[in-house]
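WARN retry 2 of 3 for item q-0093 after timeout on previous attempt; input resubmitted unchanged.
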Amino acid sequence: MISEEIKNIIPIIAAVPAGIARPKWSVMIPVFNPDKFFIEAVNSVVDQNAGKENMQIEVVDDCSTEADVEKIVAENWKGRVEFFRNKENLGHSRNYNECLKRARGELIHFVHQDDRILPGFYKKFEDIFEKFTDIGAAYCRQAYIDGAGKLISYSYPDLETSGILDDALVKLAERQRVQHCSIVVKRSVYENAGGFFNRNIGCEDWEMWVRIAANYPIAYEVQPLAEYRIHSTSMSSKNMRTGKDMKDLREALDIFIDYLPEEKREEVKISARKHYAEYSFGNAEKLLELHDKEGASAQLSETINLNPELIFENLKTISETEYPVESAGVSVVICSHNNEDTIEKTLRHLIIQRVP
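OK item q-0093 returned
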């Protein structure tokens, strides 16, 4: 169930006015100060060109200050790719909603300015929506690539064979399984469910996928057909260094947990928090390997918020950060001198305490 407070920040997405030509696809590309990956991202869509009648491709610029996006679009795609510039900077979440409002197609696909879409994506998803007519959305397994375009890893497979994702609401709520580039949603679903949160909370995409799964069947394609890029200048990399990625995850989880049946909420919340505690701890270890002790401290602080038991099973990692590891709640100062056994015993005793 969605609370009245949350309903107030979900914008209405109006239907396409009668008389407007409706292509099958709207591929929407929200951008802000795009970098060297932008042309490659758009070309990965244009190269699968289904023609203007069947595919709207539009770049929606959120008032870039360091690039002439209109010029780049005009010079590279000569009218095939549409362009729109917001009158003011909206932030990423509101820019997604601007994309939804401008989308004319029956199926909507978001492509970020640094991701890539692999050949066959659009044909495969057309087949999926023709086969499973009742679904609200479908997503595929995604590849993670680095700044050079080299494969890092694949997302964990959610099914062994392509088809309807059973218990999709619980599965999508337990962890963020879906990147924008890998999911296609019917425009009519956004019209019924509303747009992305009208405030930039971070992880608004995860909340959206869970909201959709609470109301529609979801299909899954096992073939990786989209590439999500992880690089030093990406928003995800910057957020990892500050711990904002985990803060955003916790906020989204606290919001959409109410979308689940009451008997599932506690189980899903515990599962999600344990999963992301492991994830944030892993991030901290990676940052320590890169000698980024401040970033590691930020991730460890989030690990404590998510699952403090995990930290006290790995006390050595905290000692390596040399930066304060913070947590919500009561601060406890332990006075000791060269007595590691006493410190460890004290910490293990504290962890079983419950603060009212």
